[in-house]
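TICKET #2291
ISSUE: user wants both folds in one file
ATTACHMENT 1:
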Amino acid sequence: MSDARRMKLDILGDSDEDDPILSVVNIIDVFLVVIAVLLMAVVENPLNPFATQDVLVIKNAGKPNMEMLVKQGNELKQYQSSGQIGEGQGMKAGVAYRMKDGSMVYVPETTPPADAAARPGSR
């Protein structure tokens, strides 16, 4: 009977080093860590659809193929540059100067433009 007891003790004391399933478990652990890192990268993306903040992304700034992506709430808009200089309505309000230290100074015009004096109700 002492041999039977000794055999049971040897079975219970079997080392886990030869078990092939342990390497599979380690691989699964590595994949879980990789998935967690990828999920964190998706959450940190500025164009994440679940983010609540407004975002502006500019691609190729100053080049003819410049694009702007604007996210406001749940709405995402894309603007593409046509490469042409824009034109709008308005009038000159003053002059801006760049100083030697890099700062900007705006000097408004002291006299109203000629077309503003011709319109009724403007001063």
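ATTACHMENT 2:
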Amino acid sequence: MRKFRTLLGATLAGACALAVVPGTASAAPAAPQQAAAAIDDTTGTFYPLAPARLLDTRSGVGAPAGAIGATKKVDLQVAGRGGVPAAGVGAVVLNVTITGPTSSSFVTAYPAGEARPNASSINFPKGWLGSNNVTVKLGAGGKVSVYNHAGSTHVVVDVVGFYAADNTMVDRNGGEYQAYIPQRMFDTRYDGTGKMPAGSYIDYAIDFGPENPNVRSLVINLTAVSPAKAGFLTAWSGAGSMPGASTVNYGAGKVVPNLAFVQTRPCYEDWCSEIWGAPMFRVYTSQSAHFVTDLVGMMDDGTLEYGLRFKPISPTRIADSRIGQGYQGILGPGSVRKVATPSALLTDTTDVLALNMTAVAPTSNTVITVWPFGYENFPKPGTSNLNPAAGQTVSGAVLTPIGPASATPPFAFNTHNLSGNVHMIADVVGTFYYPEPVSATAAATLKAGKTAPVAGKASRASTGS
């Protein structure tokens, strides 16, 4: 029986501070977070990293300078670089950015040494600039193969975290994933913040109540909305200088989302007085833009109940509406389709799928939303996973809980298409599981949730420029 926390474990509130920075943001040192107790078994636990660049084909970082040509690949050394240990790593979380492609194409990241799978990590048209969060199992020699299908394109890869492959990191306090039904937390269009100026940042804090000291990273869907010019968002803890890596790359006037794993630090600033010690993070925008933050989950310190561990797999396609696999035909306007998880990917404790989902050439601008099937108390959330424009084929990482065994079909997720017609593809890159079985009583408590989240007050603070 699969279980997950369908509501936030405590009342959740937000606060923000707006500041303009001259290119690079800095912050006062933060008070240290509470140390986590070491755990005996680290297999599948998560370790966040400050974003670090592993590959930039424009400048020759990680590979010889030069765009990746048609049907060519780069075998990228990951283990031992960017804070990733040289051994004991099962999978890494990457942000993959495409720039300057000469034709429509797709890039696939997969374990080096394995046959290239029938799956894509990021799809793009000619001339596109954009990014996608990609979780990929490490292959031979701690490497990842990065393949380009058509034309040529430059590729930039930043690492933001990794999962342990085995039990060799007992002294590193790995975290576990706490999954939630997606919920919109912040939206500068409606929360009084307004459109962010170019070269500015905003600080956010989210209150998890008693669990605040246990939060190490947030998993959010961060969306840039109607930027004035092409640019980027960078999300990080706010401690120290802004990292030289982007989280969302956007074009002028576009709506561009990306899943992000963002390290946090406790908020001990005046504007956090009502939620003292809550985990905070910072978002910088290079150009004037609105942005939206949807909470997907969080990575704890390994000490909370009902945490999930990650099992990486080679990318596996489970749904493709173009051929009637998983989805039965094209998704029309307002339609909801469910996809069942193949039994080969399930164990008795599997609870969440790590997916790469692709929307193929919608007939109009649309919004794609994913959430678990089979829970009557949890209708479609007011969030988005993909925001493709008409005719655009785009990919996005999705972490979604799956429904209960009692549902028909069991262990499934929903996909909603807002408008027009669109084909959808779903590739699984891993699963999250409970390291120990969860009792039926505990499952009932989790499904019922605790306190429903509420919107917090927003406040501005002049922190210098």
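RESOLUTION: both attachments delivered.
EXTRA DETAIL ON ATTACHMENT 2: The radius of gyration is 20 Å.
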